[in-house]
Amino acid sequence: LAKTTQPISMDSYEGQEVNITCSHNNIATNDYITWYQQFPSQGPRFIIQGYKTKVTNEVASLFIPADRKSSTLSLPRVSLSDTAVYYCLVGGDSSYKLIFGSGTRLLVRP
Amino acid sequence: GAGVSQSPSNKVTEKGKDVELRCDPISGHTALYWYRQRLGQGLEFLIYFQGNSAPDKSGLPSDRFSAERTGESVSTLTIQRTQQEDSAVYLCASSLTSGGVSTDTQYFGPGTRLTVL
Fold first, then answer.
1. Which residues of A touch B51 (CB under 8 A)?
2. Which helix (H) or strand (E) element contains residue B115?
3. Among A10-24, A62-76, B10-24, B91-105, which is the least confidently predicted range?
4. Is B3:B13 a contact under the CB 8 Å cutoff?
5. In angstroms, rounded to a whole number, what is the distance separating the alpha carbons of residues B5 and B20?
6. How many Cα atoms occupy the beta-carbon half-sphere of B79 within 13 Å?
7. CA angle B56, B60, B62 (to 5 degrees)
8. Is A105 exposed, middle or buried, given 0-12, 13-18 or 19+ CB atoms closer than 10 A?
9. Which of B33, B48, B101 has the CB atom closest to A89's CB atom?
């Protein structure tokens, strides 16, 4: 799986939009980009997945530029409950083995 | 329906003892995975099951670690002669099939926190 690089931590305030960028310079043609969220004392939870351009669901948006060497997870109007660790993963059809980096610790303040 | 469940939620043991960790996947999920997460770190892949066979055991840290799965149901991760470095949260996940990250979302359980004294 392609190695990913993301900020170690980010701070935000309630109601703001948060953008977390992940670099994956060695992404392969058949690789997808997946984001997971992990709250303390819980297992990771799937948030969103994309291949190119933009993907949006009820939780977040994922922006992927044309070269696919990076991606940005966008969380609109965060609340205190969005405080968690966010992991960016890259992998393809044969990559059942999820490889997590250290993730980005997001702290949302009142 | 119910999600992935794991038991016990917490386990404290003494160095040298054996422990068994249990995972109940989502009903109907054929693929099951074990991961380990040390404090403040990301997850490490341990082993993957497709049905009751384990085609990939590459992540098991040593021969003290073993796992089995009964049919397409419960899995048990066993650690023999536990060491302090085995202390971590052990997470189990399941997916409908094992088509890969692009097609099969892995659903995680809450984990078992293992502390070896």
1. none
2. strand B112-116
3. B91-105
4. no
5. 15
6. 28
7. 135
8. middle
9. B101
Q: In whole angstroms, how far apart are CA A38 and each of A49, A102, B29, B109?
A: 16, 11, 22, 11
Q: Does B42 touch chain A (CB under 8 A)?
A: yes
Q: Cβ separation of A100 and B56 shorter than 8 Å?
A: no
Q: What is the pLDDT of residues B39-54, one digit of tens each?
A: 888 889 899 898 888 8
Strand partners, B1: none
- The confidence score (pLDDT) of residue B83 equals 97
Quick one: pLDDT band at residue B97, thresholds 50, 70, 90? confident
Residues A33 and A47: beta-carbon distance below 8 Å = no
Q: Kindly state whether A29 is in contact with chain B, defined as any CB-CB distance less than 8 angstroms.
A: no
Query: Looking at CA atoms only, how far is residue A103 from chain B in angstroms?
Result: 7
User: H or E element: which one contains B40?
Assistant: none
Contact A96 B100 (CB under 8 A): yes
* Cα–Cα–Cα angle for A67, A45, A41, rounded to 5 degrees: 130
Find all residues with CB under 8 Å of A110, minimum gap 6, and list them.
A13, A14, A80
